[in-house]
Each structure stands twice: as C-alpha cells, then as structure tokens.
Write a structure and sequence with these properties.
mainly alpha; two-stranded antiparallel sheet; 2 helices; elongated
C-alpha cells in the first residue's frame, strides 16, 4: 500500500475511533414524542468495534520488520 493510501486509511480510522468514543457517552436509546423508540448499539458492541479499530491503527503505525538479521558466533 502506498504511503498516501496508508495515511488516508489511518486518518479514517482515527475519525472512526473518535466517533465510537463519542457514542460511548451517548444515550442507549431515545423515545420520540410519538412513542417510537430508537435503540443504538450496546456498550459491548461499541467496545468491540473500538478494539478492532485500535488494533488496525496499531498495525498501520507499527509495521512488522521486513528483514530479520541473525548474529551468530561459535562462542569464542
């Protein structure tokens, strides 16, 4: 993936994380004046989504090394 693509994905993930954190403090359901009720995601669902987003952010910001170098000796 190109650096600009990675930056765009990272920016979108950070925005998603901010939205999820804002949803944590929002009410779980709302009842309007007609008595209709709208239920939002539960706290557990939001936490699971946050975990997924945070792991993707960590994967993009801390990539695995491409090269592993071994240093060996004969113990001398």
């Amino acid at each position: 993936m190109a650096d600009s693509d990675t930056a765009a994905v990272l920016c979108a993930l950070l925005a998603t994380r901010a939205d999820l954190i804002a949803q944590m403090s929002a009410p779980q359901s709302i009842t309007d004046q007609n008595g209709e009720q709208v239920a939002y995601r539960t706290t557990n669902q939001i936490q699971a989504a946050l975990f997924t987003v945070n792991s993707e952010i960590a994967r993009l910001t801390n990539p695995k090394p491409n090269t592993i170098r071994f240093r060996t000796s004969k113990g001398l």
